[in-house]
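Subject: sequence -> C-alpha cells, single chain

Hey, anyone have a minute? Need the predicted structure for the following. Not urgent.
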Amino acid sequence: MNDMTEAEVKLTDEKLRAEVAKLIAETKQIGVNTFLAPFLAAAALIGATTAITAAILNFIGT
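Reply:
Had a minute. Here:
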C-alpha cells in the first residue's frame, strides 16, 4: 500500500514537472549546439581558405 498524503503526491508531481521542464530545455540547447557548431566550423574553414588564397594571390602579384 502507498501511504503518501495528497500534499506529498502534489509535491512529487511538481518535482517531476520541474525535472521534465529542465530536461526539455537541455534538449533544446543540445539541438542548437549540434546545428550551430558544424555551421560555424564550415564558416571558419571558408574564411581561412579565402584568406590563404588572397595571401597567395597577393604574394605572386596577381
